[in-house]
Design brief:
By secondary structure, this protein is an all-alpha fold. It is built from 17 helices and no strands. The termini are far apart. The model has no long low-confidence stretch (mean pLDDT about 95).
Amino acid sequence: MTTATLEPRAGRRCHNGLNSLHATLYFSPDLGTEMAAIGITHPRAVNFAVRAAAMGPVGAGTVTAAFYNYKYELVARHVPAVWSAAAPQDVLAARARAVDATLRRLLGDAVVASAEMAEAAGLALRATEACSRSARPLYAAHADLPVPGEPHLAYFHAATLLREHRGDGHLAVLMSAGLDGLEAVVTHTATGKGMAPKWVFGSRGWSQEEWDAAAGRLRERGLLDAAGELTERGIALRAEIEAETDRLDRAPYEHLGAEGVARLTELGRAFAGAALAAGAFPADLIGKR
């Protein structure tokens, strides 16, 4: 397959399906159960530990930098203290157990053991062969972890690599666009595809006052209107951000080839759709209000 046959947004569509299944972990009761068993119970501490553990016992500054849209003061309440409750390697083991339980609960044992799952794992892992560690700290940290032997865990591992690879590149684009972490969230929410503000406040640590201040800065730049909607300039900027993110994330999908990308997209959407139908996400997670 030549690279010319890969449609410009093919990688983004493929990533969306993979990322949707990956994101189920952060809303899974199985994750809370496994983390509580190793002494980590606060939801924010769970989130920071699970996503940062691959980097080792890092501090609040590193987590804030790598995650980008969390308020430093929130992170500092839990990091590095969380590593006193459980070492990173214990967190990674608990995460693996939670992934196994979550996928079995949402998809069923038959899907977990299916030929389609094994095929998806193989395709996703092949795509990761072309990922780059350069300037991608979260991807690079996860890329140093061993590939699990069971296909459903290998699929989740590959989805994590592809998610963090795209995510690290996306953060570079946001910085280039002059959007700080909260401004990036405000503009994403304004597209109607991002988290509702109440979820941002609860999970990222920002207040309504800080949200309003960020919106004010965006209005001054002509990116938001008085009603908090994206202006034409704001819509164009978000489109440019996604297009540039696509460009920086193109290599894995070019490596997989158009046929492989199409098949992985098909499989990934099917898994993600089944998880969504099983109630993997809160009903009010996405929205402008």
